[in-house]
Amino acid sequence: xxxxxxxxxxxxxxxxxxxxxxxxxxxxxxxxxxxxxxxxxxxxxxxxxxxxxxxxxxxxxxxxxxxxxxxxxxxxxxxxxxxxxxxxxxxxxxxxxxxxxxxxxxxxxxxxxxxxxxxxxxxxxxxxxxxxxxxxxxxxxxxxxxxxxxxxxxxxxxxxxxxxxxxxxxxxxxxxxxxxxxxxxxxxxxxxxxxxxxxxxxxxxxxxxxxxxxxxxxxxxxxxxxxxxxxxxxxxxxxxxxxxxxxxxxxxxxxxxxxxxxxxxxxxxxxxxxxxxxxxxxxxxxxxxxxxxxxxxxxxxxxxxxx
Length: 307
Description:
By secondary structure, the chain is of the alpha/beta class. The chain is built from eleven helices and 15 strands.
């Protein structure tokens, strides 16, 4: 298996506080890797360390088989990125902005600019000043700039943030095209599962600077879509039994409904019934349920549990 990007124990400390802690990611060649987490979880900091904009406090980064260090200039030429918001010379045209980027990168393929603009559907507005562009057009121009030099790895930080549904759909189609037709590996961060649920091959979930889940989307759909729904009146006692008698950690109490959703895979319905009976907890009902995938990710990202 060929990995384009791997991090090992990646850590960043600011003023004595760890904002990224021991993050180990594994991104395969040609895949779309969705990097999910709430705002402030550490996604942008991780991406800045990968692109050498921020120096790690600890850990290692390996891109395209090479360790990233402070002078990895040639390696960075094989990557494209949009970190936070793409910045342009607003008074210059889209084409002129891309020409300047080519000069900066030492990239002199004259066809590359037109190809990149066509790829992001900006071919008819290339001579307009960027200040007249909508947010969605600027995002597409940023992607054109990022892919113009034919990168092997494309890193995009919240690329559909602030776009309308049409713009979001256009960019999702573009990401699929870059991956499937052009063989580019994409690392895309987001705080919204719906943005990348249908395009990501693998998902990494980060919360409070820690990578708490990394798995293929197929694995997640198959393994985490089901849960047990337990209705009880004495939900504090039931929660106590789940945590202390059955040693479960992955459950969620909905007090207003007298409901507990249990997500641990290894526990059976019979085990729960037996434990509740032995602890004199009356069960109103217990059912198998299909969990919406978005609820599962909200649980991971938000850290909701019995507490």
